[in-house]
Amino acid sequence: MFNWVGLVQILVIIAVLCLFYRSFIRNTSSERLVRGLLGLALLWGLSFILSWAHLDLLGAFLHWVALFLSISIIVVFQPELRKFMALMGNIDEWRRFFKYNRDVSRNTKALDGIVSAVEYMSSKHTGALIVFMNSLDESTIDKLGVYIDAEISSELLLTIFFNKTPLHDGAVIIEKNRITYAGGILPLSKNNLNWKYGTRHRAALGMSEVSGATVLVVSEESGDISIAEKGKFTKYDDIKKLRAKLEKVMYK
Q: What is the pTM of this model?
């Protein structure tokens, strides 16, 4: 017999898990682990369904496959498990999870600062490299650079990328809507890029290939603004579209 109460409980659990995934897991090094666990859970569920449908042989086969994978996952995902357990013990992350009221004005100010600085640097052909990370994974960055931990402002970004400063050739790393590092060295992509792409573009693409980060790059030669995600470039000629994209990146 169909049970509405059971269905509602399942939907509530799914909603909580989705919220947990968006707040903690997405675009982190633990994402691959969670996907593996979800696949394993589906396999277990399917084995029970087959057994309930009296397909005992097939159900037993999937049961033993799921059991074997459950043991294997501890070995295969050992680094991710360690990071995941550290994440569960992070009190600040739990506070952020249960914090419902965001400071909208501060977020808007940070976004305005980035867009304003990028637009100005594009017009002046000032090269820039900005990495947006929800959770900093130091293993994906060759060198973090100088620790800053400052609020985002157009003035600070323009100062960092001014071509007479010692940090202008490196990347600015933005985490949780703050500038955490400047002068960072990113891993270079090994893909064969068009001749018009320089070291900044190769670094932006390389970073997007090895992590879930979104990387914005301003070309020193052409002033073009591009965003690298998952090993692909997207060029932005329209500032309004760029702002809409950065808003999704920063506040997703």
A: 0.60
